[in-house]
Prior knowledge:
Layout: H1 3-15, H2 20-39, H3 41-45, H4 48-52, E1 57-66, E2 72-83, E3 89-95, H5 101-117, E4 123-129, H6 138-152, E5 161-165, H7 171-185, H8 206-223, E6 233-237, H9 241-252, E7 256-262, E8 265-269, H10 275-284, H11 289-294, E9 299-302, E10 314-317, H12 326-334, E11 339-341, H13 350-359, E12 362-364, H14 366-369, H15 372-385, H16 392-416, H17 423-441
Helix pairs in contact: 1-2, 2-5, 2-17, 5-17, 6-7, 8-9, 8-15, 8-16, 9-10, 12-13, 15-16, 16-17
Amino acid sequence: xxxxxxxxxxxxxxxxxxxPEFHQAVTEVFxxxxxxxxxxxxxxxxxxxxxxxxxxxxxxxxxxxxxxAGRVQINRGFRVQYNSALGPYKGGxxxxxxxxxxxxxxxxxxxxxxxSLTGMPIGGGKGGSDFDPHGKSDAEVMRFCQSxxxxxxxxxxxxxxxxxxxxGVGGREIGYLFGQYRRVTNSYxxxxxxxxxxxxxxxRARTEATGYGAVIFxxxxxxxxxxxxxxxxxxxxxxxxxxIYAVEKAQQLGATVQAFSDSSGYIVDEAGVDLALLREVKxxxxxxxxxxxxxxxxxxxxxxxxxxxxxxxxxxxxxTQNELTGADAATLIKNGVWAVSEGANMPSTPEAxxxxxxxxxxxxxxxxxxxxxVATSALEMQQNASRDSWTFDHTVxxxxxxxxxxxxxxxxxxxxxxxxxxxxFGANVAGFTKVADAMIAQGII
Length: 445
């Protein structure tokens, strides 16, 4: 990291103590920006990096609700409105016990550059709560969501901030949140939330978009080396929304998906993952991976080690941050992995990313590879603004065009600064320069 950037980074550490995920996200971007700052001194003069590292607004609030036993419960809600130079803040809500302000800031910081790469007019933000929806009844989830939105409604709007779902926030939660927003505001503002149901303003293919996008991006990378998913062996971590549809798209392209996981372990299915069964277990039954194995003779549950111990051609980490370690990367490289495409946000540790880049493994960073979800959310916003509804095929075509465009943008930026084929560098530089130029154009605000 350049000395000038080191000084700014030291200030970030001082102002944001105890937030390691946020520090990691900032480091990963800063490590690419030395050549940019040298070539573009106006960014230094305008204090762009210092401003980028400080969110425009951070909102923390109490969320009281009553459980089914009549006990009062208290959670903490967050919304970090990070940067709106390109458009209204856009980014998901995460409901998970691990959520804290540092996690939300890391996700919001990443979202700035991811949203920039899509080419859509959306800024970066993120939010959520330390509430855990697992094991809660529908009535408890509804009461929590209503309490959460009663406060959040004061800070969002289709021209201000447009949340979506993330870990722990699916169609059920979005429905309860939107209903309460309507109740509080007395308006039917479709564009205020994305990930809505298809019958009340949702976009076809939004559910599939993040997983599909990660595979489409990986396929574009593979094309540069004369390879494809056809006949490849694929490992997908996670078993939530992103993982399920990464499995689906990989299978559509001719791959054999051999494994997926959840927090209890991972499944190896030598016959190839039964997508219909996986969806039934996870989306309908809300079960665990053991429930899949119980109904699938070719599958076995592994509770020790790592899913990345399996020899695989293509790895798609789609679970959570820092799930793929340096040791995991070394194992994948030793076993001959061709490509890694991040479906989750920052799922690879810095050691893993370095290992993949040094070994020449095709590596699609999350801010580029998993941008399909937020891109399709922006398409949902377009439809809401025009009171329109598109077909599934039309939306997937738009999604595919956007992901191909992101791939081309990353490669072009890497080439411009003498780092051909480096997707991490290209994604960081391309995402940053678009936002930085908009910030300079709009003045010191």
